[in-house]
Amino acid sequence: MTEIHPERPVNxxxxxxxxxxxxxxNGGRVxxxxxxxxxxxxxxxxxxxxxxxxxxAVANGGLCNLRFDxxxxxxxxxxxxxxxxxxxxxxxxxxxDRLFYASDYFDKMYEYAQQLIRAGKAYVCDLSSVEIRQxxxxxxxxxxxxxxxxxxxxxxxxxxxxxxxxEFAEGSRVLRAKIDMDSGNLNMRDPVLYRIMKADxxxxxxxxxxxxxxxxxxxxxxxxxxITHSICTLEFADHRPLYDWVLEHIDYxxxxxxxxxxxxxxxxxxxxxxxxxxxxxxxxEEGHVKGWNDPRMPTISGLRRRGYTxxxxxxxxxxxxxxxxxxxxxxxxxxxxxxxxxxxxxxRVMAVLExxxxxxxxxxxxxxxxxxxxxxxxxxEMGRRQVPFTRDLYIEKEDFMEDxxxxxxxxxxxxxxxxxxxxxxxxxxxIKDESTGEILELRCTYDxxxxxxxxxxxxxxxxxxxxxxAEYALPAEVRLYDHLFLGEEPDGEGQESGDRLNPESLVIxxxxxxxxxxxxALPGQKFQxxxxxxxxxxxxxxxxxxxxxxxxxxxxxxxxxxxNK
Length: 565
Ligand code: ATP
Ligand code: MG
Hints:
This protein is α/β, with parallel strands linked by helices. Helices cover 25% and strands 24% of the residues. Residues 35-37, 45-46, 48-49, 69, 232-233, 267-268, 275-277 line the site of adenosine-5'-triphosphate.
């Protein structure tokens, strides 16, 4: 479960709750809910809402429900329901036995609608959706009343029942609230409560052909679950009067105690990515990424596959805080947080991403030395391991230059470097493919006394490189990721997902070599590849026969750099 950080500033919603509890509102109860629509996979923005809703419940000795807001059968699927449950659980939250669906309440909502009709507060309207929009007016122009607004209660009850029974075509009629066509708030100009949709629902099948609108279903679902604080994002602020109107004009008191209060907070936006499910779905459907859990996606499943931990995501949500004004968070902060986590918790290993063969001519051909190295200098309790040193090794191609500039502190002809945890070596000869000029192999010698504890161990050389034994290393595929979009704010007005995608957001290196110890790595397990970044074993593509690693983040912390400027 989440921890509460007493040192972090208390958010404004907690202040409201504290005040409500003090005043004995709702008998001092605190009950929140996380209400996803199962029309896509959850993203990091949802993680913010999850941490907030479940976190506030925990912090205040209350409860939090998981509720699927499944009122639109055209866009919703069981696949999404299952993925959402998995993601919320993985983030570390537990709804216990409080899993609900708005569709659980369809019967009651239908009764309540009849209540509104009987009270003269709702009517069946035959205007088309285009006409409804025309009649609604604008911010500067009042609306006009629908010619159907004066239907009798009896006629409305009869038409509404026949709507439910499937007598009318889709789009031919709706049920509307009778509120105020002159209202300054467009949402209050006789909003639609029910529409006809002849579609199968993933839970109720063909039982219904009328479906409630969000603005009608949401307050009622909240009330029926006895939610006290209904937390949602800012774009619903203008809907709050309608939320309150629905609860004021419907008598649900036989079913539930108290009245929920809607509170709005700013949604999370991140640089270099898009966040709405609509745009994420477009990326998937147009094949710009390989599924919702592509490690470049800002989805929870994508971040999980990329190597993010639930702890890091919760920490991130904590750090960004909760505000009343929309803003965009630098994705470098998210990367900083996972880097901090993995710095403490990931074992160091050696992996050569672009191998260059190196032969130590004065090293006995049959000899193997098992050198002991630390797993994590940040966490000595993580122990030590052994790596084999042999005559034939691989180092990183970019750690060698045949004709280096002055400031190149790695290997070059006639120069020395230390091999990490092992010996100092010197390069004598470069072997090339004569036709292409490609460097095939380096011929070197080593200083046998230069190992830790040896007589020349203290000898200073400028560079240290990671390496693996050619004989023992395992082949692996490594996938390097970068921002999905080139522009910092691809979510801006008028941008579609195909715009300005980063063509280098995925680079696959198929011929890497990793140290032998990784043969035992488990799916999802995380490592620091020395000097290269943090990586995890891909799930599901990695197998013992073919190891596949995802780079979670590089080691370069742009966030910490900015902060230290
Ligand atoms: P999207 O536009 O991505 O489809 P949504 O708001 O339609 O988002 P829902 O499934 O309806 O998605 O959202 C469930 C809950 O998560 C809502 O309470 C919503 O306010 C919240 N939420 C969605 N996106 C964000 C975000 N970017 N930041 C914070 N909370 C969010
Ligand atoms: Mg939505």
